[in-house]
Inverse folding.
């Protein structure tokens, strides 16, 4: 029987068990579950949001049903918490064990496989089917926190090089500007560009599922693996239905993580016959335009400086009463996002 582990002694025992089985114990989980046999743990697993993690089974019990019991319990808890899909990372050689538990393999890249319980990717692609345009198409994946003249320059330049350009706006809400605001500012900022379509990334590109290190200031030691897996998923599952043969990115002089992601694109995407085009950033007298510059000037209430960095549509929104809470958040936030 699966038991939720909540008391300090059980959590400590789970930590020891997980580490003994060669995994890293990570705090910040929503559920920690285990199976006891004769008073000792023989299986442990955890759920953090929509991700299952720290799944460990006693070696002598790995041929039995314990993995299924732990996973089923955690999936059910995830569904009860309101998630429509649950995800798990595992070694490629273990992917079939999760497929036997009704997980679908999203992507397998060298040392890691990502699987999904649920039909989220299929549903997301189906919901965007009406946006598909014929031709040799391109893509840009952007956070836009907020939308700047730099983003606009990248989009205009890329749109001239392809039949149709898809702008995927990062859906993950880990930035000062919420997703609904960010995508709206992009839509307003490119309304006059005829061959672009703006849509979101859902869970499947630069998200807490595929690339959580993107949202942290510090370099994560597994960031490189996450970057490459994120890009392999994009190339294998997202690019083909949209006819995407080129991925565009702006040069990155400021952020080590984003610069590393650009380099990972050049390594990974050509293997899937996707060309990578890096476009020089738009500059002002103060250097390359960045969203972090906009937030810094907004925090200083330097409206002249903000106006030099953003389109009129973004500036109008930033000055609006609707943006008052965001302006306050910018004053308080010192992070990269």
């Amino acid at each position: 029987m699966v038991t939720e582990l909540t008391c300090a002694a059980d959590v400590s025992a789970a930590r020891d068990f997980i580490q003994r089985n060669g995994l890293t114990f990570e705090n910040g989980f929503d559920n920690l579950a285990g199976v006891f046999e004769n008073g000792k743990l023989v299986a442990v697993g955890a759920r953090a949001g929509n991700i299952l993690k720290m799944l460990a089974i006693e070696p002598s019990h790995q041929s039995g049903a314990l993995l299924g019991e732990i996973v089923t319990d955690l999936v059910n808890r995830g569904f009860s918490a309101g998630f429509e899909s649950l995800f798990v990372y595992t070694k490629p050689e273990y992917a079939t064990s999760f497929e036997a538990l009704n997980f679908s393999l999203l992507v397998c890249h060298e040392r890691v496989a990502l699987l999904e319980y649920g039909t989220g990717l299929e549903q997301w692609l189906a919901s965007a089917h009406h946006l598909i345009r014929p031709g040799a198409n391109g893509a840009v994946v952007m956070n836009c926190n907020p939308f700047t003249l730099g983003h606009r320059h990248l989009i205009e330049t890329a749109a001239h090089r392809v039949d149709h350009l898809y702008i995927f706006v990062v859906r993950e809400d880990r930035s000062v500007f919420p997703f609904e605001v960010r995508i709206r500012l992009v839509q307003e900022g490119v309304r006059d560009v005829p061959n672009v379509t703006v849509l979101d990334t859902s869970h499947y590109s630069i998200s807490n599922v595929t690339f959580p290190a993107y949202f942290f200031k510090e370099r994560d030691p597994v960031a490189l693996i996450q970057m490459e897996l994120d890009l392999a998923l994009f190339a294998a599952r997202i690019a083909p239905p949209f006819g995407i043969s080129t991925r565009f990115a702006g040069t990155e002089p400021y952020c080590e993580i984003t610069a590393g992601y650009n380099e990972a694109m050049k390594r990974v995407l050509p293997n899937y016959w996707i060309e990578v085009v890096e476009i020089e950033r738009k500059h002002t007298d103060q250097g390359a335009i960045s969203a972090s510059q906009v937030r810094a000037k907004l925090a200083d209430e330097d409206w002249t400086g903000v106006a030099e960095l953003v389109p009129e549509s973004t500036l109008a929104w930033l000055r609006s009463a609707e943006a008052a809470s965001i302006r306050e958040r910018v004053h308080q936030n010192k992070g990269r996002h």
In short: The domain at 2-118 is CATH 3.40.630.30 (Aminopeptidase). The mean pLDDT is 93. The CA atoms of residues 303 and 319 lie 9 Å apart. The first strand starts at residue 2 and ends at 4.
